[in-house]
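subagent[fold] <- orchestrator: predict structure for attached chain, return tokens only, no commentary.
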Amino acid sequence: MRWLHLAPQGRNLMLLLICQTVTTLGMMTVVPVMPLYVASLSQAGAWADPVAVMRWSSLALAAPGLGTLCCAPFAGRFCDRFGYRRMLLLSLIAFVASMLLMALSTGLATFIAGRLLQGVSTIGLILTAFIARISNDSVRGRNFGLQESAIAAGALLGPVLGGVMLDYWSLRPMLFASALLTGLAGALLWSRTQEPAASATQAATVADFQGLRSILRHRDLRCWMLAACLAQAAGFAMLTVFALFIPARFPALDTPGSAIGLLHALGWLATMLAGPLWGRLNDRGDARRHFLLAAAGCALSSALLMSCTQLWMVALLRLAQGACYAALTQSMLLACLRQLPSSANGHFTGLGRSFMVVGQLLGPLLVILFASLLPPQHLLWLVALLFVSAGLLVWRPGRNARHSQQI
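subagent[fold] -> orchestrator:
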């Protein structure tokens, strides 16, 4: 295989992208159909109550965020201190264990424990930090775009397979297969990747970044972190709302799980195609402007979903939303890392992931809060408002961005 003969940096990037695709596939197999799968785990009659299903599916959706929130700040710092390669191996072992626990679960308690362990693995954070560390300034945006495309490739297959398996068989074989594929990817990474070289300026610049204290006292970074939090809240709220919106809007569907999975897959197809494009645009221009355009596009497409009367209309809007969503995380990371020393990549990525995880927890919790007040169709207003708020946070300091002092 030709890629095995690439330079160490190029080979590392290729292997990390493969690992990102495999782990995302495992994670996204169950996420889009979470309410339907949660209902299938319990045979109690009370689970016919849609409010109860929504409550527990939202908690299951938020569980990985709880584990990541506790571990992310340490994982990023440990990458800088003990090595990215070693931390990636530990993360992959924890991720495989979480998939096996979910596959073997017969009740909600074990399933949620597996979801919690999935968050403790912090696999997405470590892959992002590793990619940031091996990328120089001229191609970092492109590499983040490729990572976004790899995430979308895994998420493209996950919803389709998860929805079809749930409708016609069971999700357990898919979860076992994901654990096996991740284990194989981990073995390949360990045997082929190399530890990125230490920065020549690390000793001189590492003291300039003081972690959370630096973020909180720096206006621009603070606004970016809050915007990332709200964008993630919108995305994860959408996962729960969409799984309830489709059956409510189209009650005649015989296989809602498959429909939900396919519609999610369309969104991720657009993300996969648009991710590298946004990355190249960010390398050449202003990541802040691209974040604003993408947030506005996500908000508009979410609001327009409520007027859809045919599934093809939903499909078109999911394509538009997926293309816009591809820009959000990578634009935030690039805009912030441009203001930081390279030696702080891991530390900042961990802290940034913590803010994003707060959003992952906030989104489903807001759905629980408003579910008793609004029908599923109107909960899409909540998603649109969160995207708009994320854009406003970045837009307000944008007028003074040129004068923003670097840390």
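orchestrator: received. Logging for downstream: The radius of gyration is 20 Å. The CA atoms of residues 103 and 176 lie 6 Å apart.
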